[in-house]
Amino acid sequence: METYQNQNNKYYANIKPKLSRDITNKRIAGVCAGIGKYFNIKVSWVRTVWFLLAFFGIFSAGISTFFVVSVYFVLWFILPKSSNIFLCETER
User: Fold this and answer.
1) How many domains does the chain have?
2) Where does the sequence pass through the membrane (predicted)?
3) Is 72 within a domain?
């Protein structure tokens, strides 16, 4: 007889997280927090990389600060807000 703990992963095996803005752990709009949650990365790492891309974009010809900030604003408007309900999509 299987216990509930043994069966727990069987029902949620095909669930993947949905990319959305995390409104509970936001600093500005929750974009970095949502990306961190989606890729299972610490949010502080995502924020640090985002800041460094924007800061060093001033000195770089490849990635400009305007481009990094523009991508952030586009993601702000495109990504939906996450709710308190467990958001998921089933893989079929």
Assistant:
1) 1
2) 49-79
3) yes
